[in-house]
Amino acid sequence: MKNIISNINKAFDHRIRLGIMSVLMVNDHADFKTLKELLGATDGNIASHTKALEKQNYIKVEKSFIDRKPNTRYIASDKGRKAFREHLDALEKLLKTKNELNI
Asked: Which residue, 28, 32, 36, 50, has most beta carbons within 10 Å?
């Protein structure tokens, strides 16, 4: 039997990274504050997990100023969208396999 978890992407194995990508898949972008509030995460959590996703080129980071205050917003890259869809497909296949085996 083929290894059924081989297509699960390790970049999305943490709940914060999974949450970040989920938010970015259904929105054009999200800013730091929004991600922090939606995910109930600390500044450090959001910073380290967005950095990990950025390092994989799964998200793009845009920095600007709004009313003289710094604003950081995140956008899922095409590569990130593709990788996340593949990850979700792999999870769905895993669930189907479980059902087929009556586990």
From this structure: 50
Q: Name the token pair of 85.
A: 């869809």
All domains in the chain, ordered by first residue:
10-96 (1.10.10.10)
Q: What residues does 69 pair with on adjacent strands?
A: 66
- Residue 58, helix vs strand vs coil: coil
Which amino acid makes up residue 84? Answer: F
Measured N-to-C along each axis, helices 15-26 and 32-39 cross at an angle, to the nearest 10 degrees, of: 120
pTM, entire model: 0.87
Contacts of 95 (CB under 8 A, 6+ apart): none
